[in-house]
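RECORD TYPE: protein structure
NAME: Probable allantoicase
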Amino acid sequence: MADFTKFPDLALRKYGGAVIAANDESFAEREALIRPGPAAFQTHTFGAKGQIYDGWETRRRRAPGFDWAIIRLGLPGVIKGIVIDTAWFKGNYPPYASVEACAADDHQAPVELTDWVEIVPKQALKGDTAHEFEVKNPRRFTHVRLNIFPDGGVARLRVHGEVIPDPRFLTGLTIDLAALQNGATIVACSNEFYSTPANVIAPGLPRNQAEGWETARRRDDANDWLIVRLPAPGRVTIAELDTTNLLFNAPGWAAITGTDSRTTIPGKTAKWFPLLPKTRLQPDTPHRFRLDSDRKITHARLDIYPDGGLARLRLLGTLTEKAERDLTTRYTTLTGTHPEPVRFPTRRPG
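PREDICTED:
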């Protein structure tokens, strides 16, 4: 598996991605391209249009040209790599494919998207295979277009990359400093036996246990933990620990500490200080805690005791002024645009 797959799938449906257009979907719907999880298949399951496939499949093309689908990324960012998966498509996969990307500032309709850039040149494909293609373009993109030549079926399209949020929605506001959509990421974790810890910082609410983080059962005296790197230095004022859907496997207790570190992953010399002391948790319950610390942090460590699962972790707070400037500078560098500074009305006395 390529190194870029450690980055989140920016196009995933549960992250807000959408297949907003396709020139053809005669045999199987375009929305399947960005479904969570691997494609499923059952032999001899025929519908009105033939064998049912968990993927996007176009008709047999009898004229020159190619088929395409446009995906709006739920999490705009810098694309590190693309996975084109033709799982279960064995006699009807496209022999070639390419991927283009573009950046849109507003909510444009598909026909209004312009300035497409090729990020994966035309490549040969095989049937029933996950094809991994590294992307070197450093720009921030909001949409991708999958082109298949001349026709056929693709089960899944994965767009792995680094989330680059729009600073206009971070500056001067109380935000979730642990949110994936705001640029936070999980950099270390003790155990992810049942599900990835990245789930705890995902958008929205989990529908079931699988959409949270759950560890194996511990048989020692230690405890499980994860470390979140904030999108930029900030101060946390409220912590939310949600055990929704975890009825018999929620942690008994949890604690949160913070550190101000210049490294991507804080080492053994990092100085951690308490934000939330060891606190009892209840199963299937959203917990909210107001924090007293006003210290700046770059990383937060969540310890759960002794093991179990968590649906969501939210850390509400504000970025430092320098962090806001740095995020705006980086956004400008990656997009070539200069977002207008947010101006807040002056409050009237009384």
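COMMENT: DSSP finds one helix and 21 strands in the chain.
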